[in-house]
Amino acid sequence: MKIIIINGPNLNLLGKREPEVYGDETFEDFYFLMKNKYNTVDLHYFQSNIEGEIINKIQEIGFSYDGIILNAAAYTHTSVAIADAVKAITTPVIEVHISNTFSRESFRHQSYISPNAKGIIIGFGLKSYELAIKAFL
């Protein structure tokens, strides 16, 4: 099974950024733990702060992978373009968020991606990604 995790803006700062919200573990450390724990899965990772690069990656792999775990971060609440990219592909997408977006600012309660996602996992910290991997398995 071939799965990719795609992270959006500012998630490259995990471990440093607002540890009270996002924890103190870097995503790279977590990713390597997941690669080792799920070593039968061909697991990939991509992060960008740039909306167009995220769209390009979704289009590039959206017909050949078995699953996409997408945390579009702030673009979740603003990007019709990323939502359209998710809608245009055949690879199923699970939308993931580290924090419970519904316990935060009201603008974070809207997701343009959710209507086109296979499912949504929010609020379980980095464990949200592992839950998405398990959902695909």
UniProtKB/TrEMBL annotation:
Keywords: Amino-acid biosynthesis, Aromatic amino acid biosynthesis, Lyase. Pfam families: DHquinase_II. Pathway: Metabolic intermediate biosynthesis; chorismate biosynthesis; chorismate from D-erythrose 4-phosphate and phosphoenolpyruvate: step 3/7. It comes from the Bacteria. It catalyses: 3-dehydroquinate = 3-dehydroshikimate + H2O. The active site is at Y22, H97. GO terms for molecular function: 3-dehydroquinate dehydratase activity. One of its GO terms (biological process) is quinate catabolic process. Catalyzes a trans-dehydration via an enolate intermediate. Belongs to the type-II 3-dehydroquinase family. Homododecamer. This is 3-dehydroquinate dehydratase. It comes from Flavobacterium cauense R2A-7. The lineage of its organism: Bacteria, Pseudomonadati, Bacteroidota, Flavobacteriia, Flavobacteriales.
